[in-house]
Amino acid sequence: MTFNQLITAAMVVAVLSNIEVAYAFQPDFAESIINNSIAIGRDATFTCHVRHLGGYRVGWLKADTKAIQAIHEHVITHNPRVTVSHADQNTWNLHIKSVTEEDRGGYMCQLNTDPMKSQIGYLDVVIPPDFISEDTSSDVIVPEGSSVKLTCRAKGYPEPIVTWRREDGTDIILKDAGGSKQIVPSYRGEVLKLTKISRSEMGSYLCIASNGVPPSVSKRISLSIHFHPVIQVPNQLVGAPLGTDVTIECQIEASPKSINYWVKDTGEMLVSSPKYQVQDVTKSLYEAKMSLTVRSFQKEDVGSYRCIAKNSLGEVDSSIRLYEIPGRNRKIYTTKFNDEEQQYGSTEDLNDVSDSSINSNKQSNVQGKVGTIKFVTPRSPIDHSNSVNGVGTSGGYMGVNVHLNKQFPSIDIVTRNPFVIPTIRTGVDGPDGINGHSYGHSTASKNSLSFITSFSIFFFLLVSLQITIQTD
Question: What is the full DSSP assignment across 243-308?
């Protein structure tokens, strides 16, 4: 090889070596750009990691519009919210303050090599949900039995989902055109349709919009269902002893809320006073309990009391009859209504009647030596439904003992608490001359006496015949 050829070969090797060194230190990206999902109004930052940058430059572009944002350390765009920074030659940042929906898209980090090298990071600007006021229902008032649509439309990015719930936690009742009913704890959709609504569906409904971007939002819609007042009376007949406090009650359902008050049969409107205590207790949006307490109940308080409820749709009333029942030390109390008797009493009265009635019985005694035989006659169909007829007979060799007991109320109507007046008896009995009206001389008692007298004679003859046989 000649000298010239050696020189040429050496130059070729040098050029190739320089090319390899230059290629080995070309700038490149160390890692990918991380995508950003930022809520509107917050700040976003993209970071481009580069190695072997050398004398090359880093540029930032908006990928969709190709608009240059910055080159190396200089901002090119006129957007004042865009800035750049770098920690060293390997880390380059693009900053966007208070992002808007227009900032959504891809951002390119570019190296001015030949050929050019680039990579893209994406900015997703999310928007928390919000309601569109003109497309959202306000509070609603409808008559009972009608249908209503409650609407909540929301905006945001991604698109929000609207869910309905009742504020008090009760279920939502959905009905279709065929009349089938579905009860659900919640409903998804912008429009909630309620068909043939009843008063139990009255209340506040919450529509909640969410799209995964905090915060979720909710709106409260009040549904009022109007209907005329209704009154329910637990006890239409209430009794109490004199001198005690007695309370009567009426249950009211009305919407809108009714005006409630009490009126006595004399036409007097009753208000709270030392004599009366008037109370209204709200139980729900449409239910209330009105009560009237009569203090130190007296004879002049006996009578009818009307509870009245009135609203814009109508008026309704109901009557409660207040009557006297015997006190602790009183005997049987009897009141006549058109020649018909009503009889009732307390447990103390029952004891008193049992003792006094037996002591006042008509008796005819002749002492005997044979044991006692007791016989009770069946109740006659014409006797009082609550009477007890008893006849006892005692006999010996030469004796007959007949007891005609007074009749008294049965145990099932004896109470100190208010109770319903027993069934009115029919028929008329004469007085016994001791304790007022008595059943002792009723037709049933006379029939029983006649039967017992015949039985006693028969028993006397039977004993006499036994004595004669034993003597013989």
Answer: TS-EEEEEEEEEESPPEEEEEETTSPEE-SSSSEEEEEEE-SSSEEEEEEEESS--GGG-EEEEEE
Give 10-residue mean pLDDT values along the chain (472 residues).
52 44 72 95 96 93 94 94 92 96 96 94 97 95 96 96 96 87 96 95 97 95 97 95 96 96 95 96 96 96 97 96 79 39 35 38 36 36 37 36 38 37 36 37 42 57 55 47
In sign, the C-alpha dihedral spanning 412, 415, 417, 421 is positive
Question: Backbone phi, then psi, for 270, in 5-degree steps?
Answer: -100, 130
Which residues, in sequence order, are CB contacts of 172 under 8 Å at separation 6+?
164, 165, 166, 183, 184, 185, 186, 187, 192, 205
**SS3 sequence, 348-403?**
HHHHHHHHHHHHCCCCCCCCCCCCEEECCCCCCCCCCCCCCCCEEEEECCCCEEEE
Question: 3-class SS at 454?
Answer: helix
**The Cα angle at residue 121 between residues 118 and 124, in degrees rounded to 5:** 155
Residues 6+ apart with CB under 8 A from 428: 339
The phi and psi torsions of 168 (rounded to 5 degrees) equal -85, 0
> By C-alpha distance, which of 330, 343, 326, 307 is closest to 417?
326
Q: What is the 3-state secondary structure (H, E, C) of 7-70?
A: HHHHHHHHHHHHHHHHHHCCCEEEECCCCEEEECCCCEEEEEEEECCCCCCEEEEECCCCEEEE
DSSP letter (8 states) at residue 332: -
End-to-end CA distance of the chain: 185
Give residues with Cβ within 8 angstroms of 410, minimum separation 6: 386, 387, 388
In whole angstroms, what is the distance from residue 113 CA to residue 102 CA?
30
Q: Could you tell me which of 216, 230, 118, 240 has the C-alpha nearest to residue 163?
A: 216
Question: Taking a C-beta distance cutoff of 8 angstroms, is the pair 103, 43 a contact?
Answer: no
Q: What are phi and psi of 12, to 5 degrees?
A: -65, -45
CA distance 9 to 13: 6
